[in-house]
Design a protein that fits this description.
- The chain has a single domain, classed as Aldolase class I (TIM Barrel, Alpha-Beta Barrel), CATH 3.20.20.
- About 45% of the residues lie in helices and about 15% in strands.
- It is built from 9 helices and 8 strands.
- It has an 8-stranded parallel β-barrel, surrounded by 5 helices.
- The two termini are about 25 Å apart.
Length: about 220
């Protein structure tokens, strides 16, 4: 199965202006989101499980892949489509062994060398960033504001899809796609928006417009 990574939502209830994660995801689905990642760093494992069960029902009905940040066990428990891993998480082959050959396994990277390593280990896609300065996620200084130029270097280093993340908005999403990214992952650009549905549509339009210009 080929996954479209165009607009990739990473959930964060603490940035959702009093709205629930389920409400934000429902709005993003209406706006045409392509992938949803259950993150919720401030929630307990039990809370993430309960949210995940609700999201699984909604994303499956909408035909939108659902992946879980970090937790392979939680991804299995809610029958998610896959998992997204960082530097401190279990290795990609472990996720593949636990979730199966059809699971989507993503990996965060910020350098071409790390991207090549992740591809060799069996990642299906890469989360590349932080492209711009972001307050939504704690990042190492060397992995912050890497810029579209580094996105292009990583794109040239691998064959698998690359998704830019970090400080991306509808106004700069086109730059990231122009640099070679296959999609953009966002947190606050959707979760903190007054109208998450409209924000998702704006991101989707920016991605499509730039992608079509590059054809």
């Amino acid at each position: 199965m080929t996954t479209d990574y165009g607009v990739y939502l990473v959930t964060a209830a603490d940035l959702s202006a009093g709205r629930t994660t389920v409400e934000i995801v429902d709005a993003a689905i209406r706006g045409g989101v392509d992938v949803v990642q259950l993150r919720e760093k401030t929630a307990t494992a039990r809370e993430r499980y309960e949210i995940g069960i609700e999201l699984r029902e909604r994303t499956r009905a909408a035909g939108v892949p659902l992946v879980v940040n970090d937790r392979i066990d939680l991804a299995a428990a809610i029958d998610a489509d896959g998992v997204h891993l960082g530097d401190s998480d279990l290795p990609i082959p472990v996720a593949r062994d636990q979730l199966g050959s059809d699971a989507i396994v993503g990996r965060s990277v910020s350098t071409p060398a790390a991207a090549r390593d992740a591809e060799r280990a069996g990642a299906d896609y890469l989360g590349v960033g932080a492209v711009y300065t972001t307050s939504s996620k704690d990042t190492d200084p060397e992995q912050t504001a890497i810029g579209p130029e580094r996105v292009r270097d990583i794109r040239d280093a691998v064959e698998i899809p690359c998704v830019g993340i970090g400080g991306i908005t509808p106004d700069n999403a086109g730059e990231v796609i122009a640099a070679g990214a296959d999609g953009v992952a966002v947190i606050s650009a959707i979760t903190a928006a007054d109208d998450p549905t409209a924000a998702t549509r704006r991101l989707a339009d920016a991605v499509r417009t730039e992608a079509s210009a590059d054809v």
